[in-house]
Write a structure and sequence with these properties.
The chain has 303 residues and is an alpha+beta fold. It folds into three domains: 1-53, no CATH class; 54-230, no CATH class; 234-301, Arc Repressor Mutant, subunit A. 43% of the residues lie in helices and 15% in strands. This is GMT-like wHTH domain-containing protein.
Length: 303
């Protein structure tokens, strides 16, 4: 899909550099054959690079010592080996860099309690956090364990210097069983906003065998937790805004940028909620076109 889109867009095909890496030699050869025979591949200014190496501390050091161009990286470890806070930090450190990584919950949840792979778990969660998880998880039911593990991973990423984290979980088409998680991490609000909108626009129905995605339902989690906030329904938004901005005056753009962090609501959700509040007489706004709510609209909340 990336190759097809890149080839079809003249502006992109002259600028994009694509790097694939896999530890399995058979996978690498198969990928090379596919890329070489891909229709229109000769139109790309830079031919995709395909490498065969293990992701380890050496790879982290290499990324840490080079300045990356704006990069969107997809990290897909087989289980957990090689996946670490250091690796994620190394591909995000430069301007314009975002990352999505595949989080194999079933493998990692088993690994947390396994002494043999403790160093891998410490590299992913941090030593203090993994010690707390090993003490807490045996007391929890399976559903709560999932929420606790994902919440702790997101918090570890945020504490490591990346303010914006979005976790999504995917279900199998044939059951409600969780298939996997994808974790998006970025340092800039714009990337966070774009990814949230993209995921919100995607269908949650099964399409060509691909399962649905959702934020983790987390009604049992503390109200201040990331997963609880990300699971709140749209119906809550009007009340949240009124409570948080009582007595304040603010532009729509500023409100959205400071308030939407760690919440599931998109820009459109905020505009819809504010239009409803305006009709209900609960806010006062500067002049704007009917049924629209631009970024520059000034909003005054009653005390």
């Amino acid at each position: 899909m990336i190759l097809r889109y890149s080839i079809s867009e003249p502006l992109i095909r002259d600028r994009i550099k694509i790097l694939f890496n896999d530890m399995d030699q058979a996978n690498v050869q198969s990928l090379k054959n596919m890329v070489d025979s891909f229709p229109g591949i000769e139109k790309l200014k830079y031919k995709p690079q395909i490498e065969n190496s293990e992701v380890n501390e050496k790879v982290c050091t290499e990324f840490e010592n080079i300045k990356l161009i704006p990069t969107f990286s997809f990290v897909d470890p087989w289980g957990y080996k090689g996946l670490s806070l250091r690796l994620i930090n190394s591909v995000l450190k430069d301007w314009g860099c975002d990352s999505v990584f595949f989080f194999n919950y079933s493998r990692i949840s088993m690994g947390i309690m396994n002494d043999a792979v403790l160093p891998h778990m410490e590299a992913l969660f941090g030593k203090k956090r993994i010690a707390e998880l090993r003490e807490r998880l045996p007391k929890e039911n399976p559903e709560k364990k999932e929420l606790i593990i994902v919440e702790n991973l997101c918090n570890a990423l945020r504490e490591y210097g990346h303010r914006y984290v979005l976790p999504f979980r995917f279900k199998s088409c044939n059951s409600d069983r969780i298939s996997h998680h994808l974790i998006f991490v970025t340092k800039h609000f714009k990337g966070y906003d774009i990814m949230k909108s993209i995921m919100a626009d995607e269908s949650s129905d099964c399409d060509e065998g691909i399962g649905s995605f959702e934020y983790n339902p987390a009604s049992s989690m503390p109200k201040q937790s990331l997963l609880f906030q990300l699971s709140r329904p749209f119906e809550d938004l009007k009340g949240i805004i009124l409570d948080d901005y009582r007595g304040r005056t603010i532009l729509m753009k500023e409100l959205y940028q400071e308030h939407s962090i760690d919440k599931p609501f998109t820009r459109k959700n905020y505009k819809d909620a504010l239009l409803q509040l305006e009709k209900e007489g609960k806010i006062v706004t500067s002049k704007h076109k009917k049924n629209t709510f631009s970024e520059k609209v000034k909003i005054t909340f009653h005390t």
